Every structure is written in C-alpha cells, then in structure tokens.
Amino acid sequence: NKTKNANRCSWPLYIDTEGTYPRLSKESKLSLITIFDVSSKMVYLFRTFHLNHAQLKAIRIAMKELEQDRNLVTFGPETSLQLDKEERKELKIEKLRTLDIQQGTGMSLKKLVDDWAGVKIFKTETMSDWTVPKLRHDQLHYAAMDAIALHYINIQSDVDWSFNPPKMLNPDSTFRTPTFFNPSKPNSAQLKMLRDICDDLEYMKDVVDWMQEFDVCITLEKIRKKLEAVRTWEKYWKLVVERQVHCMEDIRTSRQRDRDQLDKHLARKTFSSAAIRDIIYFAGKHRFSKTAGDEIFDLISKNCASQDGFLGEDFLEKLRKVLVGNSRTAYFDLESRVFKNQYHYTELDHIGHCITGDMGCNHCGHS
User: Fold this and answer.
1) Are 170 and 128 within one domain?
2) Are residues 273 and 254 in the same domain?
3) Is 0.70 surpassed by the pTM of this model?
4) Which of 68, 108, 183, 335 is least enclosed, having the fewest CB within 10 Å?
5) Which residues form the 3'-5' exonuclease domain (predicted)?
6) Mean of pLDDT over the chain
7) Is 307 in contact with 351 (CB distance < 8 Å)?
8) Whether 75 contacts 150, CB under 8 Å
9) Beta-carbon count within 10 A of 50 CB
10) Are both 201 and 82 inside the same structural domain?
C-alpha cells in the first residue's frame, strides 16, 4: 500500500523475484518479491513462500493495479508475477505489462550492470533457500542488490545515494535519457517555483561583484539559462532540475572546503608563508565581509605593522586592501608577487613568528 499510494513518480518501480524449487517438482514456487522505489530510496521485500494459491492470486491482482500508476521494470519476463490465462479471462484483465530491461541481450544481470553502468556486483546466493523462517543479512543484501542493479542499468551509471535526489556518478549519464523514464509535465505551482528561481538567480547576478565572483556568475548564468529552458522543455524537466541541484551542491562543497582550510589556519594562528598564501587565495576567490576582513588583518598585522620597514608597508597595505576592501588590484599584485616568490618567504614567516611567538623573531626582537 505504501508503494502504491506514493506520489506519482517519473521513475519506474524495479521488481525482482526469487523462487524456490520443491524437491519433487520442476516448477519454481514464488518465494520473494523485491520492489525498489528510487524516489523514496526504499527496497520492499515481500515474502510469499508461505502463501496459498488464493493469496498469491490476490498479490498478482495487486501488481496489475500497481501497473496503472507506475511502470514496472524487470530483468527478464518474470512470469511468476502473471495471472494464468483462466484467471485473466475470469477477471477480464490483460496480462501484466512489465518492461524487460534485459531486452533480449542474453546477458546476465551481473554482466549487464558491469558493462552498462560500471558497477560490479557479487552474486553468491543464487541457490539460496528463500523459505527459511528468517533470512540472513547476506540474503537480504542479495535480494535488494538485484532490484537496485536494475536502476544502475537503466541510467547506465553508478549512484551516490547520499545526495537527494541521488546523483549519477558517470558524467556521460547526466546527458543521457534513461531507458525507462516516464516524464510528467510540471504543474502550475512547479512552473511558478521555477520562475521564482530564475528571478532569484537574476537578482544574485546583479548584486554580486562580477570581478570578485566571476566564476560564480558564469555558473549562475548557465543555471539560469537551463532553468529558463526547463519552463518550456517539459519532457525531461525533472532530470534537468536535479542536475542543477547537484551542480549547486558541487559549488557549495568547493567553497566550504576552502572555508574549512581558512578556519583551520585562523584557529591555530599558524601564519606560515603557506598559510598566508592560502588566506590571500581565499580572499581573492571568495569575498570577506568588512568585519571578518578587519579581524583577520588585525590577527596577521598586530605585532608586525612597522618593524624598521622589514615587512614593508606596501605589503601590509595591499594585504589590508585585499582582506578589508576586497580590492582586486591589490589581490592581483599580491598574487603575482607572493605566488611567484617576489616576496621572500622569510618576510611571510616573520608574521608567523611575531604572532605565535615561535622561537622569537631575529628581525624585530619580538618573543
């Protein structure tokens, strides 16, 4: 019921079954039905080995009803899910329509998921007993893995499930339409939301100093154009939006990584030459607020502002303009001189000695 009543989704339900062969029969008895729902990231395991014929018939009827809301993707025909001919005639219903992802390739699931998605799976429970009172952990993993593997084949990529929505890891897959994907048109509320996002991106682009955040502005413009296209390109709008979510997440992660590195320097007050270069680089790549810039500049220059001109007022003044005033001219000058070693490392290390008191400073006498 939970799967059937879920909101309509463009992704299919991936279905796999496990059977048990009775000792005195060549027919397989349906023992387990596995259903994977991508949107909820849930795998449902339904044990059926203990059910009688009438109960199995009810399940097969329910599968037919489920077909009305979602596409059902299987590996092979999965005949065990079908009502027999007499039952269909009695109920006046058609055969269950499943979409076979094997598509006559003749390849095994293990080989297909490896060739198409680059994902290796290990199948050790092929002849497992699925009628035991309690399934082992490796049996549960095996059953779930087969259903999830169908999604890897469908999108031809491995997936990072920690993202919401899940992120395809094969770059080529982000531009490839899945084999089975039933796009639904956005409703009026969703289209309005997309228009609002476009407006917000336009506003962000206007208020950001393009000289300081040039790379961000380029990215924002690309996203805006794609979102604009989504409003008229309804067929695969959901996939396009998901890709932009992941794009923004990548930008956020990159900026956070830089920020973590800066915080580490500031917390330890380890202003070595390398640390100074990191801070200058961060200031050039991301804007400091005036308050933050003042605090960082004070930390660096507190004991070193004017010691016989050794540090040079030119260096400190440009550093102040970079940290406090976000000056691009000063940044480019420091970048060309510091990163190309036109300022001697001893000058930068002198800052670290004076602030941390590390071994004293031979140039200004500070301990």
Assistant:
1) yes
2) no
3) no
4) 68
5) 7-153
6) 76
7) no
8) yes
9) 9
10) no
- Contact by Cβ (8 Å): 358, 366: no
Residue 343, pLDDT above cutoff 60: no
Distances from the Cα of 163 to the Cα of 6, 160, 166, 224, angstroms: 20, 6, 5, 22
Whether pLDDT at 363 is above 50: no
Is a pLDDT exceeding 90 seen at residue 214?
no
Q: Cis omega (within 30 of 0) on the bond before 183?
A: no
> How many domains does the chain divide into?
3
- Do residues 19 and 28 touch, judged by C-beta distance below 8 A? yes
pLDDT of 28: 55
Q: Which two tokens stand for residue 202?
A: 């336009």
Residue 325 lies in a domain: yes
Distance CA 337, CA 274 (A): 14
pLDDT of 303 above 60: no
Of 121, 154, 175, the residue that ends a domain is 175
Who wins on pLDDT, 238 or 130?
130
Cβ contact 280:334 at 8 Å: yes
Regarding whether 17 and 79 lie in a shared domain, the answer is: yes
Which tens digit of pLDDT belongs to each residue from 139-160?
999 999 999 999 999 999 999 9
Q: What is the rounded distance in angstroms from the CA atom of residue 289 to the CA atom of residue 323?
A: 9
Range of the domain at 192: 188-258
Residues 160 and 206 in one domain: no
